[in-house]
Amino acid sequence: MNLITAPFSALLMLFYNLFGSYGWAILAFGVVLKLITLPFQMKSTKSMMQNSMLQPRMKELEKKYANDKQKYQEELAKLYQEAKINPMSGCLWSLLPLPILIALYAVVRRPLSNLMGLAATEVTALTTLLSDMGLYTVPAKADAYVEMTLANVLHENFSAVVSSGAVASFADKLKDIDFNFLGLNLTMRPKVFFWNYADTIGMAAAIGLFLIPFISALLSWLQSKVSQTTQPTASTGNASMDAQAQAQAQTSKSMMLWMPLMSVYICFIMPAAMGIYWIEQSVLGIVQQVALNKLYKGQIDEQMAEFNAAQQAREAEIERKRQETERLRAEGKTQVNASTSKKRLAAKERNEAEQKAAARRAAERSARGLDKEVPASQVGNRRYARGRAYVEDRYENVQPAAGGADAPVTEEINDQDS
After folding, report:
1. Which helix (H) or strand (E) holds 184?
2. DSSP single-letter state for residue 400
3. Is the pLDDT of residue 295 over 80?
4. Which end of the chain is more exposed for a tag (fewer CB within 10 A), N or C?
5. What does the pLDDT read at residue 214?
6. Is 125 exposed, middle or buried (0-12, 13-18, 19+ CB in 10 A)?
7. pLDDT tens for residues 132-146?
8. Per-residue pLDDT band at 231 (split at 50, 70, 90)
9. DSSP string, 14-32
10. How many angstroms separate the Cα of 63 from the Cα of each of 50, 224, 243, 301?
11. Which of 5, 218, 211 has its CA nearest to residue 105?
């Protein structure tokens, strides 16, 4: 984990030394990360917009192959290939910010270990010193954000702590980090009942911390709303598929509600620094989405116009060849396809030979005056298709065996069995 968090820690401390403010360092850090991930987000946005532009074609395929899912998948893959679009690229690139957020959370949560580079024994020694000085009370239950609390106490009593001999061996590592930003202490977590600690930090600061989760949720919802502009919906003309599309749209609406609610919950259990970072990322995300939509709209419209024109030309050529084949077949001028298998050609030749033989026999019967006599066994032009001894009502009018007894039949069966 240290290998991943080290670059983030160095970058965050660089901005803190530059601005002298932890809050501005967080915001500058977020801008740099947004610029680093911008090429990937551009690719993701473009892919999602291209997928949206293909929706009409995809709806046509769904309607055409509603009863053949395998054929639909084959045609859909062919459609993506011809349009030169990777349907998974939009999802893959959109997941990139997640590991960055996890790494940033680790850096923010443990400033002593990551920003100052203290070892576990040194963190323990600092905790003992602050406790002995009466500046810090060790909680009875483990706290995931204990290092943020210690770093804030260290800032408030930096001179006294550094001058103490208990930290002489690592005093050069200690850094005086000011976590105050716009009147808020970014190491603190928002409280639902904010008025309970207004006397300690001030009513304005308490209300400010309380509003961070809701501002983050509102901007998260707005960002999702802007992102949905690249995903238009259309009717397929198929009731079942339209119902599926409506269900998907309903799921998207539910996610637009649940994600902000989750954002509110998470911001209440995390330090305010993470809430500030999320607010900034939502603002930058909205600006980025609007800019990229405007950038790619004309390009993708032109690309899709060319693609649709090529598709229409291809379909017109297929239809022209089909009509030409039908015309040649009607005129008896069709040629054997060189790629046709020998087995299929042999079957075709046998069928043609059988038809000629049947036509010849029909002509002979007609010449002998037998064409009016049609035996019950005849199927099409095959006179004895059901056998020469075929009797149509053989089950209704059973003829007894010679002699009127069943014994010869039984004996015959027995003889056959033996």
Report:
1. strand 184-185
2. P
3. yes
4. C
5. 93
6. middle
7. 898 888 888 877 888
8. low
9. HHHHHHS-HHHHHHHHHHH
10. 21, 29, 13, 24
11. 5
By mean pLDDT, which of 56-60, 86-90, 381-385, 391-395 is the weakest?
Answer: 86-90
The dihedral sign for the CA sequence 395, 397, 398, 402: negative
pLDDT computed for residue 210 by the predictor = 92
Q: Which two tokens stand for residue 281?
A: 């990322």
Q: Which amino acid is at 118?
A: L
> Does residue 25 register a pLDDT over 90?
yes
Q: What is the pLDDT of residue 213?
A: 92
DSSP-assigned letter for residue 399: P
Count of positions (residues) in the chain? 418
Amino acid at 222: L
How many angstroms separate the CA atoms of 389 and 375, rounded?
Answer: 10
**Helix pair 2-19, 22-53: axis angle to 10 deg:** 120
Cα–Cα separations (whole angstroms), residue 409 to 320, 389, 393, 396, 402: 66, 18, 20, 19, 10
Confidence grade of residue 381 (pLDDT, cut at 50, 70, 90) = low
Gyration radius from the chain CA atoms = 41
Which H/E stretch holds residue 181?
strand 180-181
Tell me the β-bridge partners of 382: 379
pLDDT digits (tens, 9 = 90+) for 75-96: 788 877 777 776 665 555 566 6
Query: What φ, ψ does residue 145 adopt, rounded to 5°?
Result: -115, 30
Residue 349: name the closest of 336, 360, 359, 338 by CA.
Answer: 336
Contact call for residues 91 and 60 (beta carbons, < 8 A): no
